[in-house]
Design goal:
two-stranded parallel sheet; alpha/beta; about 240 residues; TIM Barrel; 6-stranded parallel beta sheet; 8 strands; about 10% strand; globular
Length: about 240
Amino acid sequence: MDDTLALARAQVDAGVKRVTATPHVSWDNPTSGERMASAVAEVNEALGREGLPLDVVAGGELAMTRVIDLPEGEVHAFRPGGGPWLLVESPLTPAATGFEHVLYQLQSRGHRIVLAHPERCPSFQREPERLEALVGAGTLTSITAGALVGRFGSTVERYARQIVHDGLVHNVASDAHDTRRRPPGMRDPIEEAGFGEHATWWCEEVPAAILAGAEIPAGPPPPPAPRRGLAGLFRRS
């Protein structure tokens, strides 16, 4: 709990008012909906005692290999904020065979899909048309703010920026794990990457609509891709 409260204080210092708890739900991390809900209630009670102005809502980040075996009631328990959306983890392994099939099966059961950190998915990097097709079929994407400024390497940064320019990003999250290695904070990396005009839509309007189960609001047009060659390099510098 001490670590949790330290992370909560860092969230407040970063200007965050609401956090969606997204524990990994996989065979390696067999979190249950009941356990997750109980922990979220415990954390909110502790935040109240400490006087920290932060609200934590329940959710989960579901692995493709786990979600297909969960009872429907358990799947519903991990919908962020109790809305219609599911946060599904983009595969971090080179092979992602059957991923689209799993997503379409979830959609056919009435779930709407948000993809977590697609910019880190080797399969999407190699075959970007796969992500384009998923977004075209109604999937939303949630990238990690640090990816825009190289915190996961240059390959991830290039692809993250590319899908921003392609209009395939709907939400930017902190994906905070702790106060040091993966700390809170979204707006600073977004501003550093040069996408500040999208911050409100990515970090406030879209997540609010996801949690409320409301229509996703129209956002600003995608930023134009930088020009290639020396002129574009000097302009970026």
